[in-house]
Amino acid sequence: MLNYQPQISFNSSMQTDKSLQKYIEQHTQAEDEVLTELSRQTHLKVLRPRMLSEHVQGKILTMLSLMIKPMYILELGTYTGYSAICLAKGLLPEGILHTIDINDELEGFAAPFIEKAGFKEQIICHFGDALKIVPTFDLSFDLVFIDADKREYLAYYQLVFDKVKSGGFIIADNIFWDGNILNSPEKQDEYTRGILEFNTFVHNDIRVENVIFPIRDGLMVLRKK
C-alpha cells in the first residue's frame, strides 16, 4: 500500500490559522441578527468579551443541542447569554434551560437579548454560586454546559453528574486554557491546574465516553453511559 501524504505549503502557521478560520466562518451558517448584536454589544460594553462564545462555536453548540433534543439543559456560566441562546435552539418545545452566573450585574444585559431571541419563557437565569444553586434543582438534565470558574471544573462535574440522565451529555469549554495545559508544572496557575485536574479525571472516568473537539479553546464532550 502506498503511503501518500499530501503536501500543503503555507507562508506561516499563523497565516494558515487565519486562512482556515476565515474559510470555516465563511462556510458556516451566518449568525442570526440577535446573536450578532449581542456579540457587538458585549465587545463594546462588557469586560473580557473574549469569554463570549463566538459564531462557529455557537453554531456547534446549537447543532449538538439539536441532535440531543433536550428537555432540560443546565448551563454553568451565563456571561451575556450567547451560549444559552445557542443551546436553547435545540430544546424541545416545552423544554427549559437553567443558566447560572456568579455576576448578577450581567442580568440586565443578558435578559433583553434572551427575550429578543424568543426564549424569555425557556431560559431561566439564576445568579449566585453554582455550587450552592445546583443542589436545589430537582431535575434530570439531558445536557450540561460548563463554562464557569476554571478552578472549580471538577467540583462542577462531580456536582452535576448524578443530575445528568443516562445517555445524557456534558460539554466543558476552555479545556485547552490558551495552551497553558502544556506548560511545565512550575508555570501553571490555579486555573490551569483546575482544568488539568478536570481533563485527567473525566478521561479516566469509566462512567463516561469522552472526546475533545479542537474548537477555539477546546470543547470536551462527554456522554454518560
Question: Can you describe what's shown?
Answer:
By secondary structure, this protein is an alpha/beta fold. It has one domain: 3-Layer(aba) Sandwich (Rossmann fold). It has helices at 13-26, 33-45, 55-68, 82-88, 107-116, 130-133, 153-160, 190-203, and strands at residues 72-76, 96-101, 123-127, 141-146, 164-173, 208-213, 219-224. A seven-stranded mixed β-sheet has the order 3-2-1-4-5-7-6, with helices on both faces. α3 runs parallel beside α4. The longest helix is centred in the N-terminal third of the chain and has 14 residues, at 13-26. It is globular and about 45 Å long.
**Assigned CATH architecture:** 3-Layer(aba) Sandwich
The largest beta-sheet arranges its strands as 3-2-1-4-5-7-6
Element string (H = helix, E = strand):
HHHEHEHEHEHEHEE
Q: Give the low-pLDDT segments.
A: 1-15
Give Rg in angstroms. 18 Å
| Structural class computed from helices and strand pairing | alpha/beta
Task: Estimate the helix proportion, in percent.
Answer: 25-40%
How many distinct beta strands?
7
Largest sheet: 7 strands, mixed
CATH topology assignment: Rossmann fold
Distance between the termini: 38 Å
Residue-averaged pLDDT, rounded?
91
Content of β-strand: 15-25%
Number of helices: 8
- Overall shape: it is globular
